[in-house]
Amino acid sequence: MVEFSNGVKIHRKHKKKKILQEYERLKINEIKESVNKDLEKNLSIVEQITGKSSDVIIRRFTIGKQSVHKAAIVYIEGLVNDQTINNFILKSAMIETRKVDLPENENQARFLDILKKYDLNVGEINEDKKFKSLMHSVLSGQTAIFVEGINYALIMDTRMWQMRSIESPENETTIRGPREGFIETLVVNTALIRRKLRDPDLRIKFYQIGERTQTDVAVVYIEGLANEKIIAEVNRRMDQIKTDGILDSGYIEQFIEDSTWSPFSQIQDTERPDKTVGHLLEGKVIILADGSPFALIVPTVFSSFFQSPEDYYERVWIMSFLRFIRFISLFFSLFAPSLYIAFSTFHPEMIPPNLLYAMAAGRSAVPFPTIIEAMLMEITIEILREASVRLPGKVGQTIGIVGALVVGEASVTAGLVSPLMVIVVSITAICSFTAPSYNGAIAIRLIRFPMMLIAAFLGLYGIMLFTLVVILHLNSLKSFGVPYFAPFSPLHLSAFKDVVFRAPLTWMIKRPIFLKPHDKHRDQKDVKTNDKSEAKSKAKSESNESGQSKSAAKK
Amino acid sequence: MILISSTQIATGMLTMPRLASSTAHETAWLPVLIGTLISLIAVFIITTLTLRFPNYTFIDFIPTVLFGSNKKRLYKIVSIIFILPYLAMWMGFVIISSRIFSELIRIAIFPHTPVIVILIALMLGVLFMIWFELEVIARFNETVFPIMLISLIIIVAISWQNAELTNLLPLFHFNWKEVLKTSCFNIFYSFEGFSIIFLTMAYTRKDKKSKIYAANLSGAAITGLLYTSLVTVTIAVFGYELVQNEMWPTYDLAKTATIPGAVIERLDPAFISIWVAAIFTTVGNSYYFTCFSIIQWFNFKNPNKARRWLGICAFPIVIYVTLMSENIFTFNRWEIIIGVIGLFTEIFIPIVLLLLAVLTKRKGGTKNDKENLPSGKPQKA
Prior knowledge:
Chain A is an alpha+beta fold. In chain A, 50% of the residues lie in helices and 11% in strands. The radius of gyration of chain A is 30 Å and the shape is elongated.
C-alpha cells in the first residue's frame, strides 16, 4: 500500500513541480532586474509588479538640507505601523536630515550608510538589491526606501497588524492549568513558547512556504535534546513542500505526514503553549504556521492523543484514575455499538437472562434488524454533532438538546429504535468526547462504522478480526521514524508509567525513550550538550543504552 | 521471543489435552513437559546454528553449510531439498490451523454460516499482513501476544474452581515408552513453529549471545508452561476418560468457565473471539514466512512487491486446499503428518546442519552482508 501511494504521490508531485518551475521561470524573467539608480524607474517597476494595487502606498519625499536627494518609501497599508513610519522613518528622513549637510558629490553608498546608521531609528534594517525578495518583504509588512542614485533599497521592519488577543483555547479546555492559547500571529506564538522556556538551546527556524502566500512557518525544538534525525527529517520534509498556499498548519500536516491514507492522524495539534512546551521538553519538534493557532507536534504516538496537559497539574491518583476512565471510554466509543450488534444478533447466550428478556421486550416493536437500527442512530448522532458545530453557539446547544432528548425519546416511542440502542449510542457519543484531542477521537469515530458492519456479519469473530487488522495497521504506521504504536510495541515498560497511568513527577525523571532524546534525564540540565562532538558521542552511547534497555524490557 | 510463542500457540492447544491423555492418562502433563523440554533443546540448537551465520536466513546459510558458498545457482537448487520441508510445514500450519479453527467457530458460534465465509474472512486478514515488512509483523505479534496470554491465564485460573485434583492422581503411573512416543508424535505438532528463528534471527538486533539465547528459550518456555498448565487443568476438571471423548477439550473448558456474579452469562464466545488472535498470528506468521522465504530464495529485486503478489496468487490455492476435505478428521491425520515433518525439520535437520557446520568450520554472514538484506533494519523478534 505504501508503495502504491508513494508512486501516486511522486507522480503528482512531479507534475506540480513542472508547473511550478515553469511559473518560477516566467516570474524570474519578469522581475530579474535588480534595483537601479533611477528612482522613478524603480517605482514604476514596483507599480508594475503590484499592478497598481490601491493598498500599495508610494510616498515620495526629499532628503537633506538642500532637498536634493529624492527618495520614496513603499509599504502596504494596514500591514505597517503608521506611527513608526511617520515618527521614525519619514520624520527622521525628512526633518532630521535637514540639519546635516549632506554633500551631493559624496559617495552615494556612504550617504545611504549614514542614513542607515544615524538617521533611521527603527529596530531592524537591511539592504536589498533584488526586486523579488524586496517585494516579498514589502508584502509581509516591511517598508522599503529607495533613494535616487542608489542601486539598492533599505528594508525596515515596520510590521504591525490587527490581531486577536490571547484567549483561552477553545478546543482543549482544562479545569486547572494556564488559560492562554495560541493566536494567529506567528511571532506572538513563538514568544509564548519563549516566555515559558527561557532556554538558550531553544531553536526557532523560519521557513517561507507557499509560492503565493509566502507563509512564515517556524520549526521549533530544543538543541541537544531533540534527536537530530527527527529534526533533519522534519527539515527535509519542510523543504519538499510545494504548494501555492498555506492557510493553516493543517496544510503542513498533510504535506509532511507519513501515511496519507490512514484514518489515524500521525501528527498531533494543540492550541496550548503549555502542552507545546511539555512536548518540547520531551524532545519533540514543534511546527508553527503563521495564521494558524494550532501548533503541530512531531513525532506523535497513538497514546498521546489520550493525554491532556492537565494530567500533570493535578495529583497522581486522581489523574491516573481519569486516564483510566479515558481508556475505558476509548474502548466503549470504539466497541460499544458493534458489541451490542454482535451480542444481540449472534450471541444472545452471553447476555444474562433477565437483561435478555428486557432487551427482547424493547426490541419486539422494532421493525429493523439491529444493524439498521444502530446505523440509523449512529448516523443521526453524527449529523447532530456536525450540525451543532456549524451552528452559532447558543443555537448549537439547543439543537443538541432537541436532537438528543426529543428525537431520541420520540423515536423510541414511535417504535423506530429500542431503548437499549439509544443508551448504547448516547454512551458511545459521550465517550468519544472524553479524548482530549479532537483529531485522535475522530479516527475512532470513523473506524466505528466498518466495525459495526463487520459485527453484523461475523459477530464477535468479525470484531476481533477487524481489531487485529486495525492493530496491524497501527503497528505499520510510523511518525517521523518513531513507531506510532510505541510504547506498546516496541515495548518500553519504562514509558508505561506515563501512558497507562500517570506516575508521580518524581518518577518521571527520564524522558520517553522511544523518542530517543539525547538528554535523557529531566532532573539536571546537561551543559555539555552544546558541544557537538560531545553530543554525538553521547547520542551513540545513549542509543546503545536504549537498545539494551529495550531488550531488557523484552525479557 | 514473542514471535516464537505466538507462532507456536495455535489450534494445537485445542486438541492437545486429548492427545496427551490418550496414552499418558492421568499424567498427561508429563508428555507436555517433555515436549517442552525437547522444543527447548531444539531451540537451543537452532539458535546456536543461526548465531554462526549472523545476518543469514536459512535460505542463505543452508547452501553455505552444505557447500561452503551460497552464490552458485546449483547450490541453491540442491539446498531446496532441505528448504522444502520447512515450507511444507509452514504451509501445513496455515492450512490446518485455519481449517480447524473455522470449524470450531462454525460449531461454537455460527452454526448456520458456511465454513468458507469464516475462512475467507480470516485469510483476508492474513493477506493484509503480507503487505507489511517483517518489522511490522514482529511488532504486531508483540502487541497481540499479551491479549492471548492473559486470556489463557484467565481461563486456566477460572477453571481451577471446577478442578478436582483427584483426577490427576495417581501421579506417577505411566509407561515411559508410551509417554515419549506421545510427546514426540502426538503432541509435538502443537510445539512446532519455532523454526522461524531461522528467518527472524537475521533481522534481530545484534545483542549479546546470552541475551539471544534467553529471548529465544523463554519464548519457547512460555508456550510450554502455558500448555502444561492448560493440560493439567483440563484433566483436573474433566478427568482423562471424559477428555478422550471430547473433540476440543480446551473449548469445553472455556464452556464450563463462568465468572461468578459477572455481567456476561457465558464466556466461550468471548474466549473463542480472543483466540482468533492466537490463530491469526500463527496462520499469519506461517503464511508470511512461507512467502518470505520463497521470495528470498528466488532473490527478487523488489522483495516486498514480489511477496505481496505471491501472497495474492497463493491465496485461492490455500483456500482450495483448506476446503478440499469435507471431513475434519482428515485434518487430525494431517496434523500428525505435519508433526512428523516438523520433528524432522525442527530437530533432525538443525542437528545435522550444526554438526556439518562445526565439522567443516563454516561460518558466514559478515557485516558486509547487511546491505544485501531485503530490509536492513535490525529488529528484535
